[in-house]
Design brief:
51% of the residues lie in helices and 7% in strands. The chain is mostly helical and 250 residues long.
Length: 250
């Protein structure tokens, strides 16, 4: 199950699920063929197939690699390990981001260059001094960060960009939790149906709608709409439309 969602900008949140029989990068390339903008992802190489986008990689993933490399047992008052230093660099960036949350995109971009750019430069300089064992957890953390370096700094290009793709991780969680209960889909059509239902329900939730009321609203009005010949009439059915917000808001 592939997940696509809008970013944390001024637009209404949109969350879309798409079932495909494989996790090949071509699936993302086909789905996003008409999209041009910033694409936030993890480090999966398959996203390289998506054209005409600016990829932004996730600092939460970088932090996770360093956290996993921290030794389980450590002598009290011992100096920080390299894994802990790497984690702290990431923590510093996220702490700055919290302080910039209420700024406009232009203000956030300027402050990121003023406050976070020096942290990034120090991080890369420090990273280049390390020679971790190949195949070790620290080695994997260092390799991951260096391989994604160009993508990890792209969030500086636009104040609307995020430092991580945590909102996408949160959006896929309802499906993964549900999958633990039903275990699998019997057919591709069933998986497609799940993707459609989850897209409607999760987008409704993200737009602060009462899901039951919204589904009832769709079933009440859509049968009388000639949306196949006039798809523009569906705009009034969208979770962010003024009419739906008035009728179905929590």
């Amino acid at each position: 199950m592939w997940l696509y969602r809008s970013g944390q900008d001024d637009g209404a949140p949109i969350i879309l699920y798409d079932y495909q029989p494989s996790r090949g990068g071509k699936n993302a390339a086909d789905y996003l063929k008409d999209f041009h903008g910033y694409l936030h992802t993890d480090g999966y190489a398959g996203y390289e197939k998506v054209e005409d986008v600016t990829r932004c990689c996730c600092w939460a993933h970088v932090r996770r690699y360093f956290v996993e490399a921290i030794p389980d047992k450590k002598t009290k008052d011992a100096p920080l390990t390299n894994a802990e230093i790497g984690r702290d660099y990431c923590n510093h960036l996220f702490e700055i981001e919290k302080d910039l949350a209420d700024l406009s995109p232009d203000e956030r971009k300027a402050e990121r260059h003023r406050l976070e750019k020096p942290v990034l430069e120090a991080f890369w300089s420090w990273l280049n001094t390390l020679t971790p064992l190949k195949g070790s957890r620290l080695g994997k953390a260092v390799t991951y960060a260096l391989n994604q370096k160009s993508y990890l700094e792209n969030y500086l290009l636009d104040g609307r960009c995020s430092i991580s793709n945590n909102i996408a991780e949160s959006s896929i969680r309802p499906f993964t939790v549900g999958r633990k209960n039903w275990l699998f889909s019997d057919t591709p059509k069933g998986a497609d149906a799940s993707a459609i239902v989850y897209s409607i329900v999760e987008t409704a939730k993200a737009n602060n709608l009462n899901v039951y009321t919204y589904l009832n609203y769709l079933l009440l009005y859509m049968p009388d709409m000639d949306y196949r010949n006039y798809p523009e009439v569906m705009e009034d059915m969208m979770p962010w439309s003024a009419r739906v917000q008035h009728e179905c808001r929590r």
